[in-house]
Amino acid sequence: xxxxxxxxxxxxxxxxxxxxxxxxxxxxxxxxxxxxxxxxxxxxxxxxxxxxxxxxxxxxxxxxxxxxxxxxxxxxxxxxxxxxxxxxxxxxxxxxxxxxxxxxxxxxxxxxxxxxxxxxxxxxxxxxxxxxxxxxxxxxxxxxxxxxxxxxxxxxxxxxxxxxxxxxxxxxxxxxxxx
Length: 179
Prior knowledge:
By secondary structure, the protein is an alpha/beta fold. Helices cover 41% and strands 22% of the residues.
């Protein structure tokens, strides 16, 4: 009997497992996993909302050499910003530039067209969005050459001076845009 009393006292001190106890642990685990999923979704949503997506991302047509990888990277960058990009491979990109009347002083490795505007080179999306929002009386904009760190180019991103050009080939300062 004494043993029964001791075991009875021990049982009084140790709470008996109930059906709800197992569910409680499962609920905590589910709550923790759910919190992680919600937080991860929040981070994803914040990154998407924080990206620079133009209000009216349009269709861009790009002309580039089949051997130029950085031009393809610029197209991928613009797709990532919400634009629909079509790439045309051409053996002589300079012939396209001449056909469109792009001033030689602003030539780069690829030429693009969006709406009624030309975009020459590795122009950051912020400048394209500004062009489309303001609709200046320009034929197009350009980032002459192939500056390191510009969209599609290796190197440390920076601030780039974007120029505009008109129907007469005159070059104007358009914007300074960072990447």
